[in-house]
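Input.
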Amino acid sequence: MTALQGHDLSSLRRQNGRAVLAALWSQDDAQTVRQLASVTKLSRPTIEAALSDLSTQGLVSTESPKSRGSGRPSRAYSLKASGGVVIGIDAGPHGISGTIGDLRGDPLASHSSPAADLSGCEDALSAIHHEIDYLLASTPHARHEVRALTIALPGIVDPTGNLAVSTVVPDWVTGGLLERISAAYPGAHVSIDNDAKLAALAELDQGSIALGETAIVLQAGHRISAAIVVEGRVARGAHGAAGEIGALSSLGWSTAYERLKSDGDPATSLLFAASEGNPRALDIVDQFADNIAEGLSALSLSIDPHRTIIGGGISNVGEPLAEALRTRIAARAIFPPELVLSSLGAHAPQRGALTRAAEHVRESLLSR
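Output.
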């Protein structure tokens, strides 16, 4: 038998460490060496060596032994989720929202900062940095402990991870937003993605879309956009533009929100009145449903989804909006999907961004 060389032993040790870390990552409760051996099929000495390495790297916490009857109590180990933070940001021309979480992506704090106009790249950058600083100040963590940061944006993000097109904030496309934020956080993995697609990821993560299902996720707020999930995966398309049916001006999605306030009342006031059952406001919500039902029906006919999830700020209207859309889609679709309101509302993009950031950390740690 050929003896393992030094680099082979080092590679094997890293592989064993990844196996133990993956096992800890998948468990919420602390695990004993015996439990880890059952999952990883590694020997006790191998697991103990891997745990020692992971502890040195600050990735594993050790819990005090707990007595379980006679015999020596077993020490337990868990992922040190507090060993850094991940951040998800939802950025748009009307404000910035964010959530900071531990390495698993479990939220620690959230915050929103409305703004009058962030369409300029410089203003957007300043607002994003301010939001991140505010979130960090809500935790014991400092800027250098940010492991990953994902930003949801209103635009098409291409396969290379860059903002390729945005009719909402075109200045962000040419302003080098991703590069400049990455430079401010050199120790973190910084990425951007389309806000509707990240909202769909959030719905998948929380189980609103079951494994293998096909769905439409509509984000209805200052702008109307959609993402599609095909057999349990967010569809991107060849250029990152899958689901961008709102680009068809004939559908009226680009002006639907403005028509909510066409009679002079702020849209937020009308939406609140509709949620309270105000007849005039409900009539306006019906008109809004008319404006977006054609596009939703076209998407339904294209992908035959199990369900459609309505999110964004306008989803706060509740069942009156959902029922108005159900009626209109049922009249157009061959197989009308189940239509439900998102429990995440307007917060889905930032939660999806947080999930994506946590995924980056996990993939990075398990691939090194």
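Residues 279-303 form the longest helix (25 residues).
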